[in-house]
Amino acid sequence: DGIFVVRSPKARYRTRTVLLAIGRRGSPRTLDVAGEDLPKVTYRLADPERFAGQKVLVVGGGDSAVEAAVACAGQARSVHLSYRGAALNRVKVKNRERLEQLRQSGRVAVMFSSEVTGIHPHHVDLRIGEATQQLPNDAVIVSIGGVLPTDLLKSIGIRFETKYGTK
Questions:
Q1: What's the CA gap between 66 and 81, in Å, rounded?
Q2: Residue 21 has what pLDDT?
Q3: For all residues of the chain together, what is the average pLDDT?
Q4: Which of 7, 9, 59, 71 is 20 to 30 A removed from 132 (C-alpha atoms)?
Q5: Is 110 helix (H, G, I), strand (E, B) or coil?
Q6: What residue ranges of the chain have pLDDT lower than 70?
Q7: DSSP state string for 147-162
């Protein structure tokens, strides 16, 4: 009859619409490179102080990656931001401005058109354009989004309506 019944430990609710807000943090997108399973690799920044004195590589080109690089810049010995694109087009203006200040002061090195090709205990392998480089490294923060369980959700009858950039 178009009505859903949602049960929780406390009550039952009748509704015409259910909003499933599951987020993407639970299933981070991975780089699929050798060494990604090393303990030095993480998929979110919980505490920038954890990286005090370390050489940190942040991978990604969105707000989460930029915010991680900015937060680590005050703690880490060095911070590099690797992004496969040529520019940070999806980043909020305020984040872009903070990153640019840190880049100009030498606190964050931004590497556009770069891609991690391997992770090792004491360095990462990067392809930057046509060249390859080994970057001394203690920690990698991968901030490249997450994977929704789309197939599972579709299998239980959930339809998707994606609205990029709308409010």
A1: 8
A2: 77
A3: 91
A4: 71
A5: strand
A6: 23-26, 163-167
A7: ---HHHHHHTT-----
Contact 91, 107 (CB under 8 A): no
Q: Going along the chain, which residue ranges are E strands?
A: 4-7, 12-15, 41-42, 55-59, 78-82, 108-111, 114-119, 123-128, 131-136, 139-142
Helix (H) or strand (E) holding 78: strand 78-82
Gyration radius of the chain's alpha carbons: 20
HSE of 40, CA atoms in CB hemisphere, 13 A? 20
Q: Is the dihedral of CA 105, 107, 112, 114 positive or negative?
A: positive
For residues 27 and 149, the answer to whether their CB atoms sit within 8 Å is yes
Output the pLDDT for position 70: 97
Model-level pTM? 0.80
Asked if residues 36 and 30 have their Cβ atoms less than 8 Å apart, the reply is yes
β-partners of residue 78 are 55
Residue 45: strand, helix, or coil: coil
Tokens of 137: 């490294």
Q: Which two tokens stand for residue 81?
A: 């931001």
* pLDDT tens, position by position, 97-106: 999 999 999 9
Token readout for 103 is: 């880049």
